[in-house]
């Protein structure tokens, strides 16, 4: 198989957030990744910025090209796959020229700043075009294991499911300066569209599509404090982004759930009550119940490994509890960061022509988010 030539958009030498570096580079630069992928170009805000990133991350590779303009990258015939990891409101403009040039796009979630731009990206790809969106959390072993247990009938058909989560940011009242855009819904990246949406996608990947959604969103803290690197408050700004969501819905008809099975979700930004778990998810079935809890984060597969999550099944017939384990594949343990392990799986799936999260799926999730936040 020919080497897949990769361009990375947003791998910066001094980025506010380093998702491309911690999420994508570990696999792409590993021996396993190098067998089939080769980074051939970087696109940043300027050619100079791209060149600085090349010097930082690839000091011994003189063949990587530096670009400061999306159109110039699009014209490069030595790029097959364009990986975009920038602030959400730049995804569209940074990637669209490459899509139109016939390159395969891999854009981090959220796909775009709003439904309109997400739909336009999907239209550019077309019904038969390849695309990848960064919803890699659905491939975390925990969620794959829950789905396998349900599919095999471990708890009978699903009757209902409840998710209670606290997170999206480390603190309920403050944000670091580098996340100032989290207070502006028009940017498209915030604790709801990122923290909540990743969780919601993981739930749907296990249980199936959630429809008939009814929701309440609240802005509990209309002014957000910003802190510097030392934790000192340096300013305060108003926010138009909700920090609390309640929603309920029904599972679309599927073979593993009873008709009109319900799903309820509670998501609040920041910490839970002191000593309480940050994440609790239960799936109630005819014969038993599955329960997952995590103490420190809701970002399962991003910051927390499966082994740090308490995973049990309650058999209603025997009234016994069974501890369940879900581990990364052996080859994924080469990568230290949980997100890098999950992203590596996406690259492997793409390489092997297995299903990956697509723009079409991302558009549907964007539409649901818009409905939830109305």
TrEMBL record:
So which domain of life are we looking at?
A: Eukaryota
Gal80p-like C-terminal domain location: 141-293
Q: Which residues form a coiled coil?
A: none
Q: What InterPro entries is this protein classified in?
A: Gal80p-like_C (IPR055080), Gfo/Idh/MocA-like_OxRdtase_N (IPR000683), Gfo/Idh/MocA_oxidoreduct (IPR051317), NAD(P)-bd_dom_sf (IPR036291)
Q: Name one GO molecular function term.
A: nucleotide binding
Pfam family, any one: Gal80p_C-like
The Gfo/Idh/MocA-like oxidoreductase N-terminal domain covers which part of the protein? 4-130
State the name under which the record lists this protein: Gfo/Idh/MocA-like oxidoreductase N-terminal domain-containing protein
